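User: Quick sanity check before I run a bigger batch. Here is a single chain. Can you write out its predicted 3D structure?
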Amino acid sequence: MQVLAIASTSGIGRYLLYGGIAILCGLLILLLRNPRVLGRWVVGGIGGCVALWAVNAAGVFTGVSVAYNLWTVGAAVVLGLPGVVGLFFLKLLLRM
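Assistant: Done. Predicted structure follows.
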């Protein structure tokens, strides 16, 4: 709750909070109209997490692994397999 209090007192934080609430309401309406969408999102998120694990497991052989943090796991869950492939190629090209 502290994060919401801090975000709501700052100038741009209030608009970000309202935007987040609007997006969540839109997603709720989408799920109520078509419940199968939730199943597809869950399967895509699980597939992305498995792909992220596979990239890191293969990192022993390839020398390229993607760190687990909030952003990479978020990309794996939200974007699924294409997100993990994008993270892998960015890591491969940038060698960070």
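The chain has two domains: 1-33, 35-96.

User: Great, the batch can go ahead then.
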